Amino acid sequence: MKIPVLNISQFKESTPLNDVYINSFSSHIQRNKALINKPHSHNFYLCVLFTEGTGTHEIDFNSYSINPGKVFLLKPGQTHFWKFETQPQGFIFFHSQEFYELKFLEHKLHSFPFFYSNQNPPFLELAPNKLNELNLKLQEVYTEYLQTNLLRELKIVNSLNNIYIELTRAYTVDINLEKLNSPNYSNILETLENLIDTHFYRQKLPKFYADKLSITTKHLNRVVKKTINKTTSQLISERIILEAKRLIVHSHDNLANIAYTLEFSDYAYFSKFFKLKTGMTPLDFRKKYF
Question: Which residue ranges does the record assign to the HTH araC/xylS-type domain (predicted)?
Fold first, then answer.
């Protein structure tokens, strides 16, 4: 069983605008129960702001608490689902990469720190005054989304950009901004993560990725260390483990087949690698998860 990858058109009763969706969160989960009641991923960028409600949000096997003021921001491909303890309220919006980047040719979504790297936390917590401010902004853009006024799409994309800017300022309030202001290192890291996503099944050593980037392995490690305080080998291993967890939990394959899918020489080696990185065997992980 593959993890379902949802697209924007599945959430719309009609198509008032292409490549963007905005809704109150309570209406969203009521309307789309059948789509979001199990782990899934998306082919778009997603943002949710909670004004009420409690529960947990699992993103790529990491659990985060849901509470008023919490904002979650997901990139395409991340697997997630919700568990609510009390009734949630707030706003949700998502859009394709093209919807944003065709309007802002000189500014890319990965320039926002929460979309910059999968290593950066996919959430932030707003202070009460900031929560009220952004709640009003989202109410305004939601109202615009429901209407058919002149230049509606332009106003919506500008409003979402303004919201992203405010979220970035809140997200980086306690971060050393020097780490965010190195476009060369930022580009290398982004390209590296994309290369790992494409090749990690077969290529598990840093030298392959350094060669693809036309830099030395030493310099690549320097870039990764400087930007996210990890090694290239760690990034590769984490991507392999994430995919292993997805397959262990969301597929019906036996564990030996999963090892084969991930191109390990045999199950024993895969099990040893998985235990070294997670502290448990693949079988123990499957049992614990369920």
Answer: 190-288
Integer Cα distance of 259 and 243 in angstroms = 11
Query: How far apart, in whole angstroms, are the C-alpha atoms of residue 83 and residue 87?
Result: 10
State the pTM of this model: 0.81
Q: What are phi and psi of 201, to 5 degrees?
A: -60, -45
Evaluated on CA atoms 192, 70, 81, 107, the torsion sign reads negative
Specify the length of the chain in residues: 290
Phi and psi at residue 48, to the nearest 5°: -130, 130
Question: Domains in the chain and their CATH numbers?
Answer: 5-176 (2.60.120.280), 182-289 (1.10.10.60)
Q: What is the pLDDT of residues 95-117, one digit of tens each?
A: 999 999 988 877 889 889 899 88
Pairing assessment for the beta strands 20-24 and 62-66 based on DSSP bridges: unpaired
249, two tokens = 């939990």
